[in-house]
């Protein structure tokens, strides 16, 4: 049923465990929404709950604390986590 499982797993490893400007623990935290640092919580929640509402101002508020590479990785990891959450919910629904 899950013909893309291997490809998805490779994507998860690359985004969450691969080399980056952010620590892998932070990428995992924003992907799963567990133990997210307080100053990132609003952005991560927005990405997970209403990604269409994320603005330049949301990122601009974090630019003093993080450079563009770090912010990019936070956004990508958080987006992946949100997508995986939706995917798994959909697969559970299909499987009954």
Count of extended strands: 0
The average pLDDT is 95
Strand content: under 5%
Q: Rg from C-alpha positions?
A: 14 Å
Unreliable stretches: none
Which structural class is indicated by helix and strand composition? mainly alpha
Task: State the separation between the terminal residues, measured CA to CA.
Answer: 13 Å
Which percent bin holds the helix content?
A: 55-70%
Q: How many domains, in number, for the residues?
A: 1
Order of helices and strands: HHHHH
* Structure annotation, total helices: 5
| Major beta sheet summary | none
Q: What is the 3D shape?
A: globular
Quick summary of this structure?
The chain is mainly alpha-helical and 96 residues long. 70% of the residues lie in helices and 0% in strands.
Describe the protein:
The chain is mainly alpha-helical and 96 residues long. It has one domain. It is 70% helix and 0% strand. It contains five helices and no strands. It is globular, with a radius of gyration of 14 Å. The chain starts with a helix and ends with a helix. The mean pLDDT is 95.
Main features:
globular; 70% helix; 5 helices; 96 residues; mainly alpha; 0% strand
Reconstruct the topology from this structure.
Blueprint: H1 5-17, H2 24-32, H3 38-49, H4 56-60, H5 68-95
């Amino acid at each position: 049923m899950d013909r893309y499982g291997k490809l998805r797993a490779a994507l998860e490893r690359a985004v969450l465990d691969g080399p980056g400007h952010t620590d892998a623990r932070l990428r995992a935290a924003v992907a799963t929404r567990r133990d997210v640092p307080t100053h990132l919580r609003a952005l991560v929640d927005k990405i997970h709950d209403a990604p269409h509402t994320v603005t330049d101002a949301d990122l601009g508020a974090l630019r003093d604390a993080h450079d563009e590479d770090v912010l990019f990785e936070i956004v990508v990891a958080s987006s992946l986590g949100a997508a995986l959450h939706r995917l798994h919910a959909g697969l559970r629904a299909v499987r009954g």
